[in-house]
Amino acid sequence: MVINEIFYSLQGEGFLAGVPSAFIRLAGCPLRCKWCDTKYAWDKEAGRHHSIPEIARIVQQTQSKFVVITGGEPMINPDLPKLVKKLKDLNKHITLETAGIAYIPEMPCDLMSISPKLSNSTPADPKLVEIHENFRLDLAVLRELIDNYKYQLKFVVDSEDDLSEIQQTVEKIGSVNLEKVMLMPQAATRDEYLAKSPMVADMCKKSGFTFCQRLQILLWDNQRGT
Ligand code: SF4
């Protein structure tokens, strides 16, 4: 598999924020979101080839029980089920971070962390818009993921106007447990994160959705490898 990076840090986002975790970042994502903070992992060859036993060995060195498989977009990698199985055989707790654009059944994953993309993610470059919009929101896939995995739904908020789109998206997916919906500020830097957080907090109070921290930005200003 092409691995962009493996590192040990704290989970920054979601209901497991703060839990020390080993991160495996897979290479490749077709979405090209405007504000993506891992552009260095977009290309499917952006990294080094590792066998699954090699990946498992590096993860074991961290001695972390919690493993986060992220990207890029892990769900488009055909070897993902084998990697998940190998890590589960090592008794790891596995979170899979995905934009929810592809469904793979029956993986022994402990938490599917789904971040469906809103229209605020559409790239400025007209050449990228079509592919982005084709992949961005697949309601059938999102439905399969929430029906078949333990999940959380994280939406990236750029402005107050995003709330109605989030509520409509949740309604369109259907049967979403509202306690699992989280809103997180769109921010590339600590200053931006702190500036947008009060707005997102107010949106959470208004809607009942949960505020999603981004500890990697707050603590380390979004440095790579955190
Ligand atoms: S889906 Fe995630 S990794 Fe892919 S471009 Fe969007 S923010 Fe970046």
Distance between the termini: 21 Å
What is the total tally of β strands?
A: 9
Mean pLDDT: 97
Structural class: alpha/beta
Unreliable runs: none
Rg, rounded, reads 17 Å
The small molecules bound here are: iron/sulfur cluster
Helical amount among residues, as a percent range? 25-40%
Per the principal axes of the C-alpha atoms, what is the gross shape?
Answer: globular
What is the N-to-C order of secondary-structure elements (H for helix, E for strand)?
A: EEEHEHEEHHEHEHEH
Strand order of the largest sheet: 3-1-2-4-5-6-7-8-9
**Quaternary form:** single chain
Biggest sheet, in brief?
9 strands, mixed
Strand content: 15-25%
The total of helices stands at 7
Nutshell version of this structure?
The protein is an alpha/beta fold. It has 7 helices and 9 strands.
Summarize the SSE layout with pairings.
Layout: E1 2-10, E2 20-26, E3 48-49, H1 52-62, E4 66-70, H2 80-89, E5 93-98, E6 111-114, H3 126-136, H4 139-148, E7 151-157, H5 162-173, E8 181-185, H6 190-207, E9 210-211, H7 215-220
Parallel strand pairs: 2-4, 4-5, 5-6, 6-7, 7-8, 8-9
Antiparallel strand pairs: 1-2, 1-3
Helix pairs in contact: 1-2
The structure holds iron/sulfur cluster (SF4).
Iron/sulfur cluster binds next to loops.
